[in-house]
Amino acid sequence: MKQSLRMYRAAILIAVFFMFPGAAQQPAPYGPSYDVILQIIVGSDDGQTSELPKELDAVSRQLKSRFAFSSYRLANTFLGRVGENGNLEYKSIASMPGKDMGVDAPVFLDWSLVNFSGAAETNLKNVFHAQTFRFGARVPVKTGAEREAVINYESIGLSFHKVGFSANTPTLLGTLSLPQTAGTMFLVVTIKQSGL
Q1: Are 59 and 41 within 8 A, CB to CB?
Q2: What count of Cα atoms within 13 Å lies in the side-chain half-sphere of residue 89?
Q3: What angle is formed at CA 126 by the lines to CA 37 and CA 194, rounded to 5 degrees?
Q4: C-beta separation of 30 from 84 below 8 A
Q5: How far apart are CA 129 and CA 59, in angstroms?
Q6: Tens digit of pLDDT per residue, the chain (196 long)?
Q7: Could you give the residue ranges of the DSSP H alpha helices within 22-145?
Q8: What secondary structure letter does DSSP report for 66?
Q9: CA-to-CA distance for 64 and 76, rounded, in angstroms?
Q10: How many whole angstroms separate alpha carbon 133 and alpha carbon 3?
Q11: Alpha-carbon distance 187 to 167, whole Å?
Q12: CA of 55: how far to CAs of 42, 82, 166, 188, in Å?
């Protein structure tokens, strides 16, 4: 009788194990978190100028050696946090940096980081990777005469696949022309390990 009771209990435990295989496993640790800082610098000849933050000195020298704008200013800074093998997605209504486009309509901004990894290469310390980094905006474009003007939204943006970043180092990712201006937006990303 005792032996059949033991076999019955063992059979129940085995059945539970196969029905719920995750119950016997420990949950995977999330790993460290990282702060992702996206900064938008605007280069233009419109006379608007401001000092770029000191941490962007290397990027500032890089821009001035490649582009002939008379002024550069920090237009926006965005911050997000992501974990190992995680994703970050940001969507918001924003103002487009640069001159007033003469359109009373919002700009829709979104950027994302997909499949982020801070430990993919064990032989490369302080190097981070993302499967995809995407920055996009839907901007209003006014066409037609003033009284019969029509506002259409056009998408602008940049997408990168398999992109790398050095830790604590502002990385210039790319440029976008500002709609209806002669200015250019420069996207700069800095990755830092967070304190938590």
Answers
A1: yes
A2: 4
A3: 45
A4: yes
A5: 20
A6: 555 556 656 556 565 555 555 544 555 566 788 999 999 998 888 776 678 899 999 999 999 999 988 889 898 899 999 988 899 999 988 776 554 555 567 888 899 999 998 764 555 667 888 999 999 988 888 787 777 778 888 888 999 999 988 889 999 999 988 766 778 889 999 999 886 5
A7: 57-66
A8: H
A9: 19
A10: 61
A11: 17
A12: 16, 22, 14, 11
> Which tokens is 13 given?
């435990």
Q: Exposed, middle or buried, 13 (CB in 10 Å: 0-12/13-18/19+)?
A: exposed
Number of residues that this document lists for the chain = 196
Please classify residue 164 by burial: count the beta carbons closer than 10 Å to its beta carbon, then call 0-12 exposed, 13-18 middle and 19+ buried: middle
**d(C-alpha 91, C-alpha 93), whole Å:** 7
The pLDDT score that the predictor gives to residue 182 is 73
Q: Which two tokens stand for residue 99?
A: 């001159």
